[in-house]
Amino acid sequence: MKVAMYYTNTDVRIEEQPVPTIGETELLVKVIASGICGSDVMEWYRIKKAPNVLGHEITGDIVAVGKSVKKYKVGDRVFVSHHVPCFTCRFCSNNQQTLCHTLHTTNFYPGGFAEYLRVPEINVDRGVFILPKEMTYEQGVFIEPLACVVRGLKTAGMKPGQSVLVIGSGISGLIQIKLAKAWGASKIFATDVEDFRLRAAKQFGADVVIHAKENVPEEVKKHNEGRLADLVVLSTAVLPAVQQALRSVEPGGTILLFAPTEPGVDVPVPLFDLWNKQVTMISTYAGSPEDITSAIELIRSKKVIVDDMISHILPLTEAAKGFQLVAQAKDSMKIILKP
What DSSP assignment string belongs to 30-72? Predict the structure, then answer.
C-alpha cells in the first residue's frame, strides 16, 4: 500500500509498505479521507520521530474484523481516534482524560496518511465511532479537530452571552469561531495577519475581524461597549499574540492557551495585572471520547457546518503539496488527502 512518509515539512515522500495484518482483537480500516492538522506541520515536534507516517483526522471503511471483535463489522463507516484514555487512572477519574498516560501513548498503525491502517484492541474498545448515515467521510475529518475545540471552550467555561476573541484564524481558530457562535457568544472577534483568513473568519461567524498589527484591545473595546473580551482564545502561540491576549482580556475573564509554543520558550507575564484583574489562564489539549461524541452530534445536527472550511481535496500522492499549503498558512483552510 502507499503511505505518505514524513521526513520534514518540505520532504514528504510516497513510499510502499505492506498492508498491515491484524490480530483477532483488531480492525483493518481502509482510509477514505484524512485531514492534515496544523500539528502535523509543527516541525520541531514531528521531526523527532521522523521518518514517520502522520495523520490522525481520518474516516474510512472497516474491511477486516478480528474474530473476537463483536461491536463492528466489515462495511461499517467509521471515524477512528488515534489517542484513547485508560478510564481508570487518577486523571480519568477526575475528568482529565487528556492528561492520561495511556491517551498520550496509544495510536493506530501506521498513521492516517496511508491506504490502510490497523486499529489496536484498546482503540477498537474505546476509539472507533460509527459515522451517522447523513455524514460524509469529508465531514467526518472534522470530528477530531472539533472535539479538541469542544474540550477547549468547555474547559475555559464559555457561557452564552460572553464576548470571545479568537487570536489566530487558522483552521482551529475558524472552528472556534463556529463553535462559539453555536454556543451563544454575544460577540465574536477574530485576528490574523493574513487577509484570506480574516475574510474566512468573517464568513464563518466573527462579528469583527482585526488585523493582528492593529491595536487589538482598543478595537475590541470600540466594538464591545468599551469592554475587553470575556474569553480570549490563543490559537497561535507566537509571542506578539500571547502579549495581545494578556492585554485584551476583561477583568474576571479567561485566556485559553489552545496552541503551544516550542519547548523552552518563556513568555513574560504581568503577574500583577493578572492578579489585579482576577484573570484565569488555562490550557487544553486534545479531546476525550465524550468530546468526540459531542463533535459528531454537532456536525450531524449541522449546528456546526464544516463543509465550507474544506479548501483542498488532494490525492494521497500529492501529500507533499498538501503539507506545503498547510505549512505556508496562506490561502488554505482544511486540506484533505484521499488515498
Answer: EEEEEEPPGGGG-HHHHGGG-SEE---EEEEEEEEE-TT--S-
